[in-house]
Structures
1.
Amino acid sequence: MFKALAAQWQANQEQKRAIAAEKWEQEKRWREEDREEERQKRLEEAKQQEEQARERAAEEARRKETTTSLYRAHLDVLDKAATVSYVALTCHEDTWTFLARRAFGAWSPEWLTSAVQDSPGQAGPVAKQATFKKNPNLSPGRITKQDNGMQTIEVSGDNLVTILEELWNTAFGRTGYLAIMDTDPNRGACGPLYRRFRTWLEDLEPGTVSERGHTLVLDERLDTQPA
């Protein structure tokens, strides 16, 4: 009887060892499967990251190419603007204020609307009040007041280049950060105004010695064609 019990106990132990070994092998297979699944997951993530990196690089290359192309076209516009002796720019005084302050800085309000001069020297920048990024050197008489808040400003080619540069930088050349930080509510006008100047310059024909510069009207309501 003792031998039978011993044999039964030994059989039970063997069975337990077999079950434990089988369980170990199963857990080992599960761990290997988990490791393989994790490895495949990491490979897939690496492929996705690599693909995203390639897409970002391609997008950056396209963006740089587009920006370069746009800037080359912009340089052509500046080259054309630089050859203009002066342009008689007709627009609303608010439009000129917006253009002038963005391009040159802050100055006396009397200068921005300096068509009517009650006394000599009233027009023109006030040195103590003006903070120019660039002094446009507009002498008295180069801003003529018209009806309904319209006015004509004689702008030199050099000043026209400065205006176009500021409009382009704000509308197309700025980084997202600079665009967000620009709180000017009229910033959205820079793109349309720039395109209006650009179209006018592209269609501009060379003048003659007898002509006094060129004219540009920034008002679709006026029945006036640029000369």
Note: Residues 85-217 form one domain.
2.
Amino acid sequence: MTKPPNRFLRALDRFHAAHPWDHNAHYHRWILRQLPRGCDRALDVGSGSGDLARLLAERAKAVHGIDSDPGIVARARELTAPHAPVAFTVADAPSGIPPGPYDVITCVATVHHLPFTEALTRFRGHLAPGGTLVVVGLFRESTPGDRLLALASVPLNAAMALIKNKGRKSSRPDSMTAVTRPAEMTFADIVREARRVLPGARLRRRLFWRYTLVWREGSGERRPQ
């Protein structure tokens, strides 16, 4: 597939700089739909400014968010109501995950920064029986299907940018200040390794250069897509 000309790519960059929106937050409500209606403890790995951790408090009695960036952890604490059942800690994943078990573990746009197999193994080890793991991640395009999905995402990405910024002054969300890096694993690599560590895990390519992984400890129960 022919790569778009540089002039077009620069124009897209300027457009999205003027109309920022959080691709990861787009999946937050979808994540909630994968979870039980109520649980005791939840962990969000790579919690950033805490948007998802605060949403998880709708389902869990206690939520713990961890991130390796002290600045963004401080910001997450500022944005969280004093009496909310949400705590944030500076910690490196996967080795620094606070002791579980957790009924829910989420990890959004973070696992490609980590040793993949070790991270999934640690997540599994910290899940309570019947617990649910949900990952939204990035993968490296490697097949014609990957590139077609990426191409389809381009106009939809622009449309979402306009919708998300309609009627308000555009500004870069706190959740978009984290350091980014490209994904190295292909989707096929991710599927193969994930199913080795998490038998029965459900993985799917998604729009906006993401994939999702859902795994439930000790159960083959399927949840809505």
Note: Residues 220-225 have pLDDT under 50 and may be disordered.
3.
Amino acid sequence: MFQRCGNDLSTQAVGPKILWIKKHEPEVYAQTARFLTATSYLVYRLTGKFKVDHYTAGAGFTPFYDCQQHAWYPEFCKDIVEIDQLPEIGWTTDIAGVITDEAAQLTGLSRGTPVIIGTSDAAAEAVSVGVVKPGQMMLMYGSTAFFIEVTNEPIQDSRLWSAPYLFPDTYALLGGMSTTGAITRWMRDQFAVDLVKAEQYSGKHAFESLMGEAVHIPPGSEGMVTLPYFSGERTPIQDPMASGVVFGLTLAHTRGHLFRSILEGVGYGINHHLEVMKEIGAMPSELVAVGGGTKNELWLQIVSDIAAEVQKVPKVTIGASYGDAFLAAVGSGHLQPGILSEWVQYDHEVTPNRLEHQKYMPYYSVFKDLYQSTKSLMHRMYELRKN
């Protein structure tokens, strides 16, 4: 399966989800004409066509997608789904169809307007910051973290995901962390209610106040390491039963220590991905940061210091919708794909502090050992929570 699909089964995979419906909700399965993503459903409503792009098919539709032939693989479909229940596959900027009369009435869009096949949110976000050339990697700071590195050939490793990229003869190496920005929001909502209330009269955002508490705390949070697996974890450990750990907590630690330790824990997780990429000969040559988390300068600096890598921060970080506009321009013939990166202007670069990097490395070692040391306990606790 890994050789044919380029990916192992994981929580991302569509195949097991369809099989679950087939087994547990047979009446739903029997009435299902097509299994679509949110993107392909929108394309269907606009054009009446069932389409999905190669990137989404390759990254998510395991074990149906044949990464060698760039087509559905009948052998792995036959016991789960009929191939005609899956959408047709094309490239992201291919024209799927045009706005129908019904769609025009519902949306106000002009009848006959061409509609591209489109892609997933993360891939569109990568395009929005000009990540289209081999060696470039998007590092998305959102509720979750997502990584897309463009490569000129398929690179496969069971710790990561792989797929064709958005244009012919380009490929992508992918990774994703389950909870990153979501943990900072959890921290704010559970332990900084006073700061949220203070926003109303001070005008100072609660996250800004938390950064103020964390910024003067030294690297390593004075002996605290956080595993950011608060909703299981995707790559590179691929463990949905993993859970969060705050390790080394003492009476000397404060709220600021905990907030910084959470930011550092995400940084260690990002570095873990980069370490895997380097190990398999796929270390990106350029990191481009995007997403709401880029507003947190402390977080960006922590990640650069841990990873010892420069991050470029674009002036425009609107995200996926901005990338969709670029892709529509390519699909309608107004732009060539290679020019996308030339449209992107950078606001600043975050450069690593080598001395801080050296301070972080012992804590990063603890981070990696901590998961291995607690993995079996995490799994036991997962079963207890289910009961």
Note: Residues 354-386 form the longest helix (33 residues).
